[in-house]
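User: Structure with FE3-S4 cluster, C-alpha cells only please.
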Amino acid sequence: MIVNIKILRFDPEKDKKQHWETYQVEAQPSDRVLDAINNVKWYVDPTLNFRRSCGHGICGSDAMMINGRNRLACKTLLRDVVKDGGTLTIEPIRGLKVEKDLVVDMEPFFDAYRSIMPYFINESPAPAGERLQSQLDAERMAHSSNCILCACCTTSCPIFWVNGSYLGPAAIVQAHRFIFDSRDEATNQRLNIMNQNTGVWRCRTAYNCTEACPREIPITTLIEEVKRAVMFQQA
Ligand code: SF4
Ligand code: F3S
Ligand code: FES
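Assistant:
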C-alpha cells in the first residue's frame, strides 16, 4: 500500500512555529506506524525527530497523536488507521513543550510522577522471607501496576492541557499502585498528596485518559477509587 504520512514538524533552530510536512511511503498493511516513520527517517528525511526504544509496547517512549488520538506508534498497525492511498496525521502529544518535531519535554510529566513517591515504603523489620500478600490484595493493584508511563493519558486530558499543575491521570495511577498495595505503609502520605488542589479533585471524569491508554487500564475507575479512599481518610 501507499501511505501519505503528514507530520507536524518543528525545528527550534529555524522555525518560528510548527508546520505540516507530508511524506509518501510504501508499506504493508500489517506494518506498524513506527515502521512507517522509521522509513521516513531512514530513507527520506533523516532530520525527523521522534522517540522510540523497545518497539514492542513496553518502554512507553513512542507516544504520539495519530489521527487525532494518542497512541503508541509501535502498537498501532497501519491497516487500523489508514487506507491504501490515504493520509495519516501524526502530531506530538499535547500539553508538554515541543522540543523538536515529535519530541516533547517530559520533565513536568516525570516531576508529577516523582511527587507521588513512586517507591515501596515499609519501615517494619523485614521478615525472614518475602513480604507476602493475598491473591485478593494483589488484584487490587493489578491494573495500576500495568502502567508503562507512556503519558498517553495525561497528555490527552483537557484538565491537564489548561492547568499543567494538575498531577494528571498517570501520576494518579502510579499513586493508586502504592495506595492499594497491602504491603506499603505510606498510604496516608500519598492520600494527602492526592487531596491537594493538584490531585484527584481536578479530574472531571472526561474519560479521554481511559480511551487513550495502550495498556487498557481503566484509569477513570482507578481515579474514582482513589477519590473514595481520600474521602474515607478525611471522614
Ligand atoms: Fe500510559 Fe496507561 Fe500508564 Fe497512562 S496509565 S501512562 S496511558 S500506560
Ligand atoms: Fe482527565 Fe481522565 Fe479525569 S481525561 S478529567 S483525568 S477522567
Ligand atoms: Fe517502546 Fe513503543 S517503542 S513502547
